[in-house]
Amino acid sequence: MKIIGYKLGKLRVPLVTPFKTALRNVDHVEDIVIMIETDTGHVGYGAAPATAVITGDTHGSIIDAIRNYIMPMVTGMEVSQLNQINEIIGEALINNFSAKAAVEIAVYDLFAQAHGVPLYKMLGGGQPRIASDITISVDYIDKMVADSIRAADAGYETLKIKVGKDLGVDIKRVKAIYAAVKDRCLLRLDANQGWTARETVAALHELESSGIELELIEQPVKGADLKGMKYITERVRTPVMADESTFGPREVIELIQMGAADIINIKLMKTGGLSDAIKIADIAKIYDVKCMIGCMLESSISVTAAAHLAVAKSSVITKVDLDGPALCQFNPVTGGATFRGPDIELNETPGLGIEAIENLIPLD
Ligand SMILES: C[C@H](N)C(=O)N[C@H](CCC(=O)O)C(=O)O
Ligand SMILES: [Mg+2]
């Protein structure tokens, strides 16, 4: 099975409700989709959103990296040379992890199709069902409480509460949501770098002393502030998770050795795809550190790939934040994983199992 060409498209899916974090407000998922073509007629699907405030990647940079750097180097290669292809993708240009992720996901899709098995079996197998949390966007307190109750009614057992705007209001937000759903849901907080280290310690001490049990606090301070992450990790009872502080395997090793977090959030858009995400899961396993599989605001194409990884690495990836598709008004993808409320189920079709994508705008 040889790579002979590719097509690009843009996918735009409206959200059920605007997605608001300390970093940005958006009302659509917008992915660049790649379909890699082979001499056997098989098509491999990959996709990447532009999360410039986290990865630095824009739609323009993703398209340029794929068209002018990555695909010219892998076109003509045999899909069976998976590891070699991954190294070429990684070295085609520095950074540009979203573009690399889109291409790698499509190549893994083809590799598993070539072997006639779903991707998770190629990665080691597992139980093809996982449950995700859902994000509660940062907003007025009443709106966040209402959104949390609606999520609990829809069957979500874990809520990811966005904070990081104003410390005083954030504490009130968490207390109000906890009072409303504490018997039904576990709360994880994500400040998206919005607090300082001292503010985080003060906020968590206030919440902890009020009897509020949180599952974790995600990325309270700036990604580069590893000393701040360590300062917090050493002083609070609530587990601290690194998101924007770690992209690739080397950063994960540094962060773990520094004691700058308890948990790692793995996202394919930060690792540049599956190969480095697998390395991070294996590193975390060695250090006995647990991971979350996360996503950006992205569609079910790349989230399906992340779900396959989570299933295959379930002994270390024990937390799931793959709610991108659930936040959308509809799923334009036929095939791939099935998303029903919190439940994500993989199908047994070879590869990612993606058959077709509606509303795809060709980019030619
Ligand atoms: C969508 C997911 N639940 C999430 O919250 N991801 C964010 C970043 C998403 C974005 O801005 O596109 C995160 O974990 O920080
Ligand atoms: Mg995060």
Give an overview of the whole structure:
The chain is 40% helix and 25% strand. Helix 10 (249-258) packs parallel to helix 12. Strand 7 (186-190), helix 8 (197-209) and strand 8 form a beta-alpha-beta unit. Strands 5-6-7-8-9-10-11-12 form an 8-stranded parallel beta sheet. It is α/β, with parallel strands linked by helices and 364 residues long. The protein has helices at 52-55, 59-74, 82-91, 97-115, 119-122, 141-153, 167-181, 197-209, 226-235, 249-258, 268-271, 274-287, 300-312; strands at residues 3-20, 25-38, 43-49, 129-131, 134-136, 158-162, 186-190, 216-218, 240-242, 263-267, 290-294, 317-321, 333-335, 338-340, 343-345, 354-357, 361-363. The mean pLDDT is 98. It binds ligand LOXFGALJ and magnesium ion (MG). Residues 21, 24, 51, 135, 160, 190, 192, 243, 294-297, 321, 323-324 line the site of the ligand C[C@H](N)C(=O)N[C@H](CCC(=O)O)C(=O)O. The ligand C[C@H](N)C(=O)N[C@H](CCC(=O)O)C(=O)O binds at residues 21, 24, 51, 135, 160, 190, 192, 243, 294-297, 321, 323-324.
